[in-house]
Fold this protein.
Amino acid sequence: MKNRTILSILSILLAASCMFSSCEDMLTPDLDRYATVDRYAQDSVFSAFGILKSIQSVGERSVILDAARSDLATVGTYTTDSIKALANFENPQDGDNALLNVADYYHIINSCNFYLSRVDTVTQKNGKNEMLRETAQIQAIRAWAYIQLVRFYGSVPFVTEPIGDAQTALELEKSAPRVNKDNLIDNLIQAGLGRAWELQTQWGMPTNYGPLNYGSGSYESSACFIPVQLVMGDAYLMANNYAKAAELYYDYLFRLSPNDNNLRYSCSKLTMNRNNIESKGVSASSWARALSNYDRDEQAAIIVGAANSTIGTTLNAVQHVFGFQTTSSVFTYATEGDDNSSAATAGSTTVTANEQYQEILPSESYVTLNEAQKFCDYRSEGSTDIREYLVGVGDGRLYGTAPYWSTSNSQDDRSRIISKFTVVGVPTSLFVNNAYSFSMNYTIPLYRKSQVLLRYAEAVNRMGFPQLAFAVLKDGLFRQNFPTLGYHDANVYCLKYDTIRDDAGQQIDMRIDTVGVVVSAGIDEETGEELFDTLYYADGAEPDASLLNAPYWVSRPTSITGGIYYITFDEMERMKNYPFLDFTTSEVWSRTDAESSRSYAGIHGRGCGNTGGLQDTVYTYARMVAQKVAENRARLQGLSYSDQVALAETLYSGDQLLVTDQDEIINAVEDLIVDESALETAFEGHRFTDLLRIAGHKTDGKAWLGWKMGRRNKKVTDDANQYDASLYSKMQDEKNWYFSLPTRK
């Protein structure tokens, strides 16, 4: 595998034969329903499923590659040399590590290129073009593959024509343009991705080809398709085109079910009795279902693995490196009659926690970030509202991502294990015994709704809307959470009178009146017309144009939580310039029951309880931004943690943020989004590359990235000058961010 060339990568095929062969596993489509369509439509459906099968081979590998290098993970006693090399950023060349095989990504790309070069987008059947949906989807898959390549390799050859022989590959090795995070989107648009968005908007996603039986259940095949807006949004965000990225994420969110709810998957408060002492904790079991139960409102696209190899491709490598041993079973059952004239295969995969499988473990930084959060329990008891912060609980999502466990089920020797893809089957919290029941998750999400919302927040924050971005975290973006604006003339006027003197001859001062531009002077007795006094500005100056239509709150948010009370007139006024920042006009964003129910909130509420609006007085805009500004200053100035905390207290007063530097505020909100991404989407395959992208937004991105990575084995409460200097140094060289492509001798 060593010293493979770009030539060997691109001449991976004579791929046409692979493209149109049937897939003898769970990804074989049901073509009976296409009996009335041209034969090529059937072939193209086979091709599409062949491409989906190719994604299986890289999906779980991407999770491992990213997790090993993120700030949320560390290595342990049983970590292999190959994983240690990734974690230490030794960055082996492609082919030197079993997890690194760039050819697999190019296989997907070349398969897409063959499809797009052959698909019939003109012929219609029954007045309908059958292939436009599929064409748009194949464009999206090709774009997704290129995004993964750029995320992991930095700069790669961009090929859009099919390669079927070595000579073509050799020529392309010399002539193909290179793409990176800055120019990838332009090349994808030129290659047809923009047209794919138009087709998807007009025709929708591909037709559902029926259920995918993975042996222990089934998923609809449409679950595997990738919305075009999401790959386009990602590519624009990589290039720091924030407005275009926000527009595309908004378009996706706009088309979701209007009944969607951030708190559908959230941690729940528990009251438990232990040793006859009543205490409160949280259960993460409801939140964990965000990954185990397929829901189109939550999971935008998934990869499905089979329960055992007789059914299809199994996906268990992620479970293995996170610390689980897997055992597959298989059985057959009759589907017609009792004579087994027709039989189907089923099965399941059992997972068992095993310390010797633990190659990637949760880092100190990740665990203490969770523990530093405050879980807010806001409830009504009779006519009294009660706000309580559960002591020692932290963010409940920790117990669904990295619960305690031990081989002896003892509190004394327990440690944490990453269970993101092996769902915890019992409630776990600080107050409950170790997790001992885990179940296999057969899917890997490529996109989740919470991830899309966080990237939308990232984009709008960088556009200059930090309060709107924070609302994604705290409150949720729906109409009832926003104030209603009105406008009035805020200039101060006076009524001019002739000089009037009192009985003593003293002049009477002019009267100041702020009732508005026009003041009635009564009714003319002769004509019956209303008379108006002439108004003058109190200071004698010309009207201040900026005050003629000054905004004011016509009404506060109507949601019961209090909503986005912290958003300013200025930010709401500027939001009107962008249709994709509009959450007040369309019924899509209306949640009428939010006026009587607390069931809606932002992403942070998934793990931290009643965070919305006025309920949570700890997780507030002013306080949290102040804390992150102080953290960033501590990083730059080498402050102790106690000095950092003291500094934060001086940067806000109640709900008023005392920081005025807009760049500091945007950086602070961005860091809050980074934290929320860790709490919500840890170990799902994009943390390290998220950090790379965000470093590209910041003026001191390399220093910030180095500090962030250098702190992965530190507590969040450690002094800011405590970090791994060697890892910090590695992050100052962009060559260490990416894997190396194979080179030709």
